[in-house]
UniProtKB/TrEMBL annotation:
Residues 39-290 form the NodB homology domain. It comes from the Bacteria. InterPro entries: Glyco_hydro/deAcase_b/a-brl, NODB_dom, PgdA-like. PROSITE patterns: NODB (PS51677). PANTHER family: POLYSACCHARIDE DEACETYLASE FAMILY PROTEIN (AFU_ORTHOLOGUE AFUA_6G05030) (PTHR47561). One of its GO terms (biological process) is carbohydrate metabolic process. This is Polysaccharide deacetylase. One of its GO terms (molecular function) is hydrolase activity, acting on carbon-nitrogen (but not peptide) bonds. CDD domains: CE4_HpPgdA_like.
């Protein structure tokens, strides 16, 4: 049975959630702490902040798209001026863990401590607490999302089980958070990130063909558009920030913009819209087994 259409604002055909993960060098440090002494490896993530991010921000301004930036606390502490600039340009800053850690390996107390540190770092950098959460590398627990909710976050973008946002319970009391599902096919990092040590990908596959990735993204967006769903694009400037890949990204975003009735929404805008009509929302489920 095909999923129901997403309820959308009047005159809109689909939702488009442009999300940016600012993992920077902390992606590589999460794979191997010894990367702290590997300047070549660290430079991969640093390039995203010094070159990829400015290119992306200029393109988003040009196309009048507001995106949601998922920021680890360490990124906010290391690049506070970059985070302030993103917020000043009207984009949303959300939480992406503290050190790009695997929350599935941490107990509840340590998860709460790290999310709290991330929230403080983000607020210190841009003056506003994050309203959304996306777990970094690895897995997460249901309690992870409940802790994020306790810190004031109203949505997360972590799971893969739908093509539309939906409300999910995070505890036995029935407290809820909006889930904005994602797909690996719409994430640039698995296509383009490559390093010898620490090895990524572990099997050392080649960097993907740019034209094939562009085709994948266009096909997925077209499907979401035709079925009135929510397209979730994940970007990391260290992956699509190079001149050639940036040209591919520009072509894709312009392709999206050429479609009539695309609602480019931040995470908070999606959460606010869905909350307005939660009880009568046929495409949003009130409970979800995780």
């Amino acid at each position: 049975m095909y999923a129901q259409e997403m309820k959308l604002p009047e005159g809109k055909q689909c939702a488009a959630f442009i999300s940016v993960n600012l993992a920077a060098e902390f992606f590589w440090l999460s794979l191997d702490k010894r990367a702290a002494e590997m300047p070549k490896t660290l430079s991969l993530g640093q390039y995203g902040m010094t070159h990829g991010l400015p290119r992306l921000l200029s393109l988003l301004d040009e196309l009048h798209i507001k995106a949601t930036f998922f920021v680890p606390g360490k990124t906010a502490e290391t690049y506070p001026e970059k985070i302030r600039e993103i917020a000043d340009r009207g984009h949303e800053i959300a939480c992406h863990g503290y050190e790009y850690e695997n929350f599935g390996l941490l107990d509840a107390e340590e998860q709460r401590e790290r999310i709290g540190k991330a929230v403080k770092a983000i607020e210190d950098a841009c003056g506003k607490k994050p309203a959304g959460f996306r777990a970094p590398i690895g897995d997460l627990m249901l309690e992870t999302l409940d802790i994020a909710r306790e810190y004031g976050m109203t949505y997360s973008s972590d799971l893969y089980d739908d093509d539309r946002p939906y409300f999910m319970k995070t505890n036995e009391k029935g407290d809820k958070i909006l889930q904005i599902p994602q797909q690996w096919a719409n994430f640039d990092l698995p296509y383009f990130a490559f390093n010898y040590r620490p090895a990524f990908p572990f099997g050392q596959g080649r960097v993907a063909n740019y034209s094939n990735v562009l085709s994948n993204w266009k096909d997925e967006f077209t499907g979401h558009y035709n079925h009135r769903l929510c397209y979730n694009l994940q970007l990391d400037p260290q992956s699509t920030g190079s001149p050639g890949r940036f040209a591919m990204l520009r072509e894709f975003l312009e392709y999206m913009c050429a479609h009539e009735g695309v609602w480019f929404a931040t995470g908070s805008e999606l959460a606010d819209f869905c909350k307005q009509d939660e009880a009568a929302y046929p495409s949003l489920r009130e409970t979800r087994v995780v």
